[in-house]
Write a structure and sequence with these properties.
Elements: H1 12-40, H2 44-67, H3 70-73, H4 79-101, H5 110-126, E1 136-138, H6 144-154, H7 158-171, E2 177-179, H8 191-214, H9 220-242, H10 247-251
Antiparallel strand pairs: 1-2
C-alpha cells in the first residue's frame, strides 16, 4: 500500500527550499519595480533587460516549485496566487507604463490603448480556467512585455503598434489554447518533441537577448530564430486548440 504523499513529514531542507523558492518568485515584483524606475528615467534598454530578467524568474520558479512539491513544503502560502500577482505586475503593469512613457503609441490614443490592455489582462488573469487542465493558457496570455520588446525593436508607425496591441487585447477573449512553455505535459506524447520545444524556447530567449544586446544594430540570423519561434509557437497553439491531446491518454503513460 502506497503512502499518501501529503502525509509524509516535511524535512527542514524541503521547507527551507520552499520558502526560498517563494522568495525567488516574489523577487520578480522587485525586478518589475526596478524596470519601472528605469522606464521613468528613460533608460529603456535597461528596462527591457530587467523585464527579461522577470520573464526568466517566471520561467524557472515553477519548475523548482514542482521539483520539491512546494504545496507540501509550505502549505500556508498560495504559490499560484503569488505567481499571478507578480505576473500581473511584470506582464501587464510594467509594459503598460513603458507604453505610456514612450512614443510607441499615438499621443492621443495612448491612454485608451493602455486601458484596453489592462482590462483584457484583468479578464485573462482571473478566468477560472485561464490555465487549462491540460496546461495551456486560454486566450492571449498577456505577454505584453514581449509585445513591447518587439514593437520597440521593429520601430513601426505608432498607429501600426496600436493596431497590433488592440488585436492582441481582443485575442485575450478568444479561447485559443496557447502553449505554456514550461508545462509541456500535454503538448505531445513524444518525449523528443517535448524536449525539442523546450530547447527551441531557450534558443528563442537567447536570440531575443542577443537582439537586445546588439541594439540598435540587428542580425538576420537572430531575427530569423526569434520570429521563427513565434510563428511555430502560434502554429502549435492553433493545432492543439483544434486537435487537443487526450488528458486521459497522456496521464496514463
Amino acid at each position: 500500500m502506497l503512502l499518501d504523499e501529503s502525509l509524509k513529514p516535511v524535512s527542514f531542507t524541503q521547507r527551507l527550499l520552499g520558502w526560498l523558492i517563494h522568495a525567488f518568485t516574489a523577487s520578480g515584483a522587485y525586478v518589475g519595480l526596478l524596470a519601472m524606475l528605469a522606464i521613468y528615467e528613460r533608460n529603456l534598454l535597461l528596462a527591457l533587460w530587467l523585464m527579461s530578467a522577470a520573464i526568466l524568474i517566471d520561467a524557472v520558479d515553477g519548475i523548482f516549485a514542482r521539483k520539491i512539491k512546494i504545496k507540501q513544503a509550505v502549505p500556508e502560502i498560495n504559490g499560484e496566487l503569488l505567481d499571478n500577482i507578480v505576473d500581473f505586475v511584470n506582464y501587464t503593469i510594467v509594459p503598460c507604463f513603458f507604453l505610456l512613457v514612450t512614443n510607441l503609441l499615438p499621443e492621443y490614443w495612448r491612454f485608451a490603448c493602455v486601458m484596453a490592455i489592462t482590462f483584457s489582462s484583468a479578464y485573462q488573469f482571473t478566468q477560472v480556467d485561464a490555465k487549462t487542465s491540460d496546461h495551456f493558457f486560454k486566450g492571449f496570455p498577456s505577454y505584453w512585455n514581449i509585445a513591447v520588446f518587439y514593437l520597440f525593436f521593429w520601430q513601426m508607425n505608432s498607429y501600426a503598434n496600436m493596431a497590433v496591441l488592440l488585436m492582441l487585447a481582443i485575442m485575450s477573449f478568444v479561447p485559443i489554447k496557447y502553449v505554456y512553455p514550461s508545462r509541456l505535459d500535454y503538448l505531445t506524447e513524444n518525449d523528443f518533441l517535448r524536449l525539442s520545444m523546450a530547447v527551441m524556447t531557450v534558443l528563442w530567449g537567447a536570440a531575443t537577448a542577443g537582439l537586445l544586446w546588439i541594439y540598435p544594430e540587428s542580425n538576420y540570423f537572430l531575427v530569423a530564430i526569434s520570429m521563427g519561434y513565434l510563428l511555430l509557437y502560434l502554429a502549435i497553439s492553433l493545432y492543439r486548440t483544434w486537435v487537443p491531446l487526450s488528458v486521459t491518454a497522456s496521464s496514463s503513460k
